[in-house]
Write a structure and sequence with these properties.
This protein is an alpha+beta fold. A hairpin with a 3-residue loop joins strand 1 (21-24) and strand 2. The chain has helices spanning 11-19, 49-52, 84-95, 173-180, 230-239, and strands at 21-24, 28-33, 65-66, 75-81, 100-107, 115-119, 122-127, 130-135, 147-156, 159-166, 196-197, 200-201, 207-215, 221-225.
């Protein structure tokens, strides 16, 4: 699926990425990406998940290809295609909005109302060497329609746990939408999120891709879930919040 030269991985790198496998079959590979690892290369040259997929290289020199991305500090479920037909199938499914993504996030106070739909168009802006997304009028040049659904799962005086489902797939969509309603995600310094939660430092953006439901290239649908990582669970416990499963 790729003509790029293989990346040489250490035994530790190979063992790590293989330990993140949530589901694998002949067509797809689903991984539980840790926070702090970029999905693909960008301005900063560092080892990425895309590089680590060479751990799954087949005898013909081909390896899986990511079909979507997660932000560097977002943990959780991410999907790769193992064959060219699967990549094409999943690419079309994404364009048709047939993938259902469920995220968990921490906010410093519950949104009002506690469940709803955010419809705010977004536009990409370049500030120096960084890319940002901003809310924009629907008819503004470069604006893209963006829709996010949300439900509050658990509330405490120190904060709330929310479940988020993006209908569209714009860069930083959930982060910007929640900042726009006055509830930036905990740890999201770029968009105004608090850097502490329940009296503890937030080590990163507190956003976790908890579940992905997608049409399988061989028919039917496949649902894969990933439990929140330790840093997320630790802050939940500090605030006395419950309901960490996407199905809660």
């Amino acid at each position: 699926m790729t003509a790029r030269a293989p990346v040489q991985l250490s035994p530790e790198d190979t063992a790590a990425v293989r330990s993140w496998v949530l589901h694998e079959d002949a067509q797809v590979l689903v991984l539980n990406k840790p926070a702090g690892l970029s999905s693909q290369g960008g301005r900063i040259r560092a080892r990425t998940l895309d590089d680590l997929l060479w751990a799954f290289m087949r005898s013909n020199g081909k390896r899986p290809e990511l079909v979507h991305r997660l932000d560097r500090d977002t943990s959780g479920v991410i999907l790769a295609a193992k064959t060219k037909p699967a990549a094409g199938f999943l690419g079309r499914a994404i364009q048709a909005r047939k993938l259902q993504k469920t995220y968990l996030a921490l906010v410093s106070a519950a949104p009002e109302p506690q469940a709803g739909c955010i419809n705010l168009s977004l536009r990409r802006e370049e500030i120096g060497r960084e890319s940002y997304m901003r809310v924009a009028a629907a008819d503004a040049p470069g604006a893209q329609a963006a829709t996010s659904l949300y439900t509050t799962l658990s509330v405490d005086p120190q904060g709330a746990l929310v479940e988020l489902s993006p209908v569209t797939g714009r860069m930083h969509q959930l982060r910007v939408h929640f900042a726009a309603i006055g509830r930036p995600l905990v740890g999201d310094a770029r968009y105004g999120g608090a850097l502490t939660f329940a009296g503890q430092a937030a080590p990163r953006l507190m956003l976790h891709a908890a579940a992905l439901d997608f049409p399988h290239p061989e028919g039917g649908r496949c649902t894969v879930e990933a439990p929140p990582p330790d840093d997320f669970v630790r802050l939940l416990a500090a605030a006395g919040l419950t309901g960490t499963a996407a199905a809660s």
